[in-house]
Specification:
The chain has about 100 residues and is mainly α. The chain has 5 helices and no strands. α1 runs antiparallel to α5. The longest helix has 15 residues.
């Protein structure tokens, strides 16, 4: 079953080849790091999630794993931070890669 934004002929239920899930996850994380503040102004979930990404908290996993584990929390974070332009990338990750 293909989602509307999935490249023609690519289906995660058949193969992840060509979906570039790791690249999309890394671009999403890079955008989060660029847009969201650190330090005292940081959202508490962002502080927690950034520590998970950096391997400072819990076991070390790739960005896609952490995004998958926290999809709803990330959606809420983007809403609180007013970063609606990142929601489509998160939804693409959810539909194509998670």
């Amino acid at each position: 079953m293909n989602e509307p934004d999935t490249p023609q002929g690519l289906d995660r239920y058949v193969s992840f080849i060509g979906l570039d899930c790791d690249g999309k996850a890394e671009r999403f994380v890079a955008a989060l790091r660029e847009k969201l503040p650190d330090g005292d102004a940081a959202d508490p979930f962002w502080t927690y999630f950034r520590a998970k990404l950096d391997g400072e908290l819990g076991p070390s996993h790739d960005a896609l794993y952490h995004i998958h584990c926290h999809l709803n929390d990330l959606r809420d974070l983007l809403g609180r931070a007013g970063e609606a332009e990142l929601v489509p990338l998160l939804e693409t990750l959810e539909h194509e890669c998670c």
